[in-house]
What we know:
Distance between the termini of chain A: 45 Å
Largest interface: A-B, 92 and 92 residues
Oligomer: homodimer
Amino acid sequence: MRIVLIGAGNVATHFGRKLMEVGEQVIQVFSRNRLKALQLAKELEAAATNDFAEINTDADLYILAVHDDAIGEIAAQLAENGITDKLIVHTSGATPMRVFEAASTLKRVGVFYPLQTFSKIRKPDFQKIPICIEARQEDDLTILLNLAHNLSNKVYHINDEQRASLHLAAVFVNNFTNHLFAIGEKIQTDSGLHFEMLLPLIHETVAKLTEGPPAVMQTGPAIRHDEATILRHLHLLSGQPTLQEIYQIMTKSIQQTL
Amino acid sequence: MRIVLIGAGNVATHFGRKLMEVGEQVIQVFSRNRLKALQLAKELEAAATNDFAEINTDADLYILAVHDDAIGEIAAQLAENGITDKLIVHTSGATPMRVFEAASTLKRVGVFYPLQTFSKIRKPDFQKIPICIEARQEDDLTILLNLAHNLSNKVYHINDEQRASLHLAAVFVNNFTNHLFAIGEKIQTDSGLHFEMLLPLIHETVAKLTEGPPAVMQTGPAIRHDEATILRHLHLLSGQPTLQEIYQIMTKSIQQTL
């Protein structure tokens, strides 16, 4: 497939590299940031532009790997450029299909959402990344399914509501979990200890997920209703009201049946 | 060393196995639950008892791997049995050294705290488990340091205050993190999706810890101040006030500087 990549951030970069690796052809990279467009385009042996009017109108697929806020606007721009009979997808977990409704002349729209957190440095193992797809038209769904299977072993066809829930779940298990790690680091540093001490425990916490459902595997003072330890911990968090609040609500939530 | 193991739960079991593996001699297992004492003792080729009066008075080391609440009482019992010149340690992260003060005739006391979550099923990689030790007397500290180095590559001499902080940090990165996974599972199940979809994301969340401090690596709607997504997520959690509270306080905490 001949693909135009809209965006040059982490998602666009990792998608572009993987597409190239599996033999798909990224023909052009668009980014408002000309330098970023040029850099990624060079790596992908593609053309680069930061001018909407110069976006290639003859690709098979347009992948909008941009900020959620920008998707509607860029889709409208593509429609304005006359790209109305080509397949256009966004890569956002948080954005419903109706984002494309503003550009009402677009008929072939869909979603190509990789459920992963991308960073500049780490090369993701794409084969293991769940790719969640959706398309307004049946034929396009087939096209996206085939493409997704080329990139990953885990392809899911899920609807808008499911994708929204999935994105919410991802916030809990990724963003909020990372913040708990940040809190752990702060507590360690405040008492003159290294965060690294906690890594074996963190690794085991995740490894245990293979043993059974996390709710069943819950341990610690909250589930034991160990009030003495809970009070001691809240006392240790004196002067840090937000951390006390987190401790209390997490403890309450653990003690409730989910 | 000739060791008496007080307790037959997960910590006692995994300690006992590892001690045997490295050639230390567990001579007796005590548990109030006679059957559990017998089971573990058999595995460790040790004697078993559920009678305080029968605890061997001539061991080099007594390891109290019991519930936090029971430590003081058992220490007092050992003192009453005349075991006052032997080294006695507990394995609790949450319990300060002063737990031994009730048994004032005990002079040689200490802590041998493995920073890990143990379960019946999984065999822990003991070499990687941080062991945090403390002792009232200098000589005993040396004994515990030597023993700990036989079991693990990661041995730390930390005081009561540090151990209390460490235990608190462990609650955040282990117990609370596991609860976030349980919430993720609930959200998935509620929308007809499998928890397993989230595993690659969870693995990456942890793998990224090698890249930089978690606070610096934070991603997601909270750190981006993406109010539209935050509101959509809170709406998705309608009717689940505790989860809404968790979402809000975690978002607020991420947006504050830790």
